[in-house]
Amino acid sequence: MDKQRGVPPDKVSRRFVNFVLGLGFSGILSGFAGTALAYLSPRRDSAVTSDFITGRDGVLRPDAIGENRGVVGRSRLGKILVIRKGNRLFGLQARCTHLGCTVGWDGVAQQVECPCHGACFDIRGQVLRGPARQPLAQIELVVGDEGVQVAPPAT
Ligand code: FES
Predict the structure, then answer these.
(1) Fewer CB within a 10 Å sphere, N or C end of the chain?
(2) Residue 131: which of 93, 100, 94 has the closest Cα?
(3) Distance of CA 29 to the CA centre of its chain
(4) Measured between alpha carbons, how far is 31 from 56 in angstroms, rounded to an integer?
(5) 67-88 tens-digit pLDDT
(6) Ligand 1: which atom is nearest the Cα of residue 114?
(7) 19-63: pLDDT as tens digits
(8) Residue 43 CA, ligand 1 centroid: distance in Å
(9) φ/ψ (deg, to 5) at 15
(10) In whole angstroms, what is the distance from residue 40 CA to residue 33 CA?
(11) Any idea where the domains of the chain sit in the sequence?
């Protein structure tokens, strides 16, 4: 026993080891909890502040979308599927209403398809085949020389 402090030396060292182990265990638990929270919380497009829809090469230009093709871009409303049919561009929310996968345009089948569970929608977002039950939201677009934009909210 340590006569100066009145505490046996082996108890001090055990306390210290328990403290260090507890600290390490808490750190590991915090890491798991942080990872789980980051996985569960949806990604936000907070960096997108303008109404322009952006793709891999910057602002989405109308001439970059070929006839009967669909392109998914990002906007302040999230991912948007822009489809060209003739001179017209159609905008749809690209997040499947079933479980949230990103949908795409199938130019051969002439429908929007979800790769995850096979839901299909028409060009106006109406459900053609489940498991999705709700339509995709239509997005009003403004097409200009500078690019394709999401229409500002009606006032
Ligand atoms: S997430 Fe689209 S069909 Fe399931």
Answers:
(1) C
(2) 100
(3) 26
(4) 32
(5) 999 999 999 888 999 999 988 9
(6) 2
(7) 888 888 888 888 888 777 766 665 555 445 578 888 888 888 888
(8) 18
(9) -60, -45
(10) 11
(11) 1-41, 54-150
The first and second tokens of residue 129, run together, are 């085949």
- For 54-78, b where at least 16 C-beta lie within 10 A, e where not — what string? bbeeeebbbebbeeeebbbbbbbbb
Q: Judge whether residue 96 has pLDDT over 80.
A: yes
Torsion of CA 129, 130, 132, 136, to 10 degrees: 0
Contact (Cβ atoms closer than 8 angstroms) between residue 92 and residue 137 = yes
Q: Which of 79, 93, 98 to mutate to test the pocket of ligand 1 (most atoms within 8 A of CB)?
A: 98
Inter-residue contact 114 to 136 (CB < 8 Å): no
Beta 120-121 vs 111-113: how paired, if at all? antiparallel
- The architecture of the domain spanning 54-150 is 3-layer Sandwich (2.102)
Q: Phi and psi for 55 in degrees, rounded to 5?
A: -120, -160
